[in-house]
Design brief:
Blueprint lengths: L2 E11 L11 E7 L7 H17 L8 E11 L4 H16 L7 E8 L5 E3 L3 H6 L2 E8 L5 E8 L3 H31 L2
Parallel strand pairs: 2-3
Antiparallel strand pairs: 1-3, 4-5, 4-6, 6-7
Helix pairs in contact: 1-2
């Protein structure tokens, strides 16, 4: 029940202060459902920007600006992975050149050690640790990992393996969505 609206603007002319001579300057803005963005949103913006920069072939658009605006519509848990998925779909839909696709998967590590994928807000509160991964479509590489709480190295590896398996379902969803969008004529 978590939903995020994504808008992508650019590549467009960049302000001189933000212009990069060798690639596009990527800006990510995360807008909360209510109120002004705070420290948490700024931190997530940085994670999202770094993940997007890892796949966007910005060298093909030097001296330009790309702005990605993510508006939170509802947050019922797994917000960061929802933002990652919305960001990737926006990049894909805008036709920007990408080295790979990526998806976000959130795992909640329960007190008894069980792993829950795509946890709700309540499940996140009860969890011992929450791990969010950005996984690339090429070789299921990890582009970003964010953890909250405590877990052992083995538990983190188990969560990562579960997230990499779950990524297949998200990439299939991307394929189905693109197929539906472009097959209507």
């Amino acid at each position: 029940d978590t939903s995020v609206l994504a808008g992508l603007y650019g590549p467009a002319e960049a302000k001189i202060s933000k212009e990069l001579p060798d690639r596009a300057a990527l800006e990510v803005l995360l807008r909360p459902k209510v109120g002004l963005p705070g420290v948490l949103e700024r931190s997530r913006e940085q994670l999202l920007r770094q993940t997007c920069e890892a796949v966007v072939l910005g060298v093909l658009h030097p001296r330009t600006a790309i702005t990605l605006v993510l508006q939170v519509l509802s947050d019922a848990g797994s917000l960061l992975s929802c933002c990652l998925n919305a960001a990737c779909m926006a990049l894909l839909d805008a036709g920007l050149p990408l080295a790979a696709l990526f998806c976000g998967v959130t795992c909640a590590l329960q007190p008894d050690g069980t792993i829950l994928l795509d946890p709700t807000a309540r499940q996140e509160q009860e969890a011992r640790a929450i791990l969010t991964f950005a996984i690339a479509s090429s070789e299921r590489k990890v582009l970003m990992a964010n953890t909250k709480g405590s877990c052992s190295v083995e538990e983190m590896q188990q969560c990562l393996a579960a997230a990499q398996r779950a990524a297949d379902a998200v990439f299939q969803f991307y394929r189905d969505s693109v197929r539906r969008r472009y097959s209507k004529s």
